[in-house]
Amino acid sequence: MKLLKIAIFLMSITAFSQTSKVGTIDVDFILSKMPELAGVQEQVDAYGKELDADLKQKLDAYTAEINKFKEGQNTMTLNQRRTAQDSIIAMETDINKYQQTANQMLALKREEFLQPLYKKIGDELEKIAQAEGYTQIIQRNGNLIYIDNRFDVTLAVIAALGIELKEGE
Known about the structure:
Number of strands: 3
Strand order of the largest sheet: 1-2-3
Radius of gyration: 30 Å
Largest sheet: 3 strands, mixed
């Protein structure tokens, strides 16, 4: 009986290994070798310069406000001094928020510009995976980035749970 169980186990492993083919890919390496990356970097740099120009305007206005305050603080009333200080603090806060937001906006813009390159890599990956019979492709960092839909059990689990999907879902 034990021998029969071992034989069935070995046959199932053999059958599974024949239907499953896993590959790896280094998307970042491919991306770094694409000639289009230089154009993307130029676009990102241009956008970064726009953000830097806006920041410079804010910093210039901030510096001017500080200089104005320093020059006139001796002649200001207490209320005028508080108002000017509040204005300077508000400008500092605005500049700090702008710097944080600008970094996020730059990262988002970079991803937006890289999206067509990622799509191009993904399209070619899918063609190669299908042509060579890969069932799964894993990125070198361990993320699963391609799986043959024949091995996706999502719909089977949904059906087993009795959940009905609307058309197109």
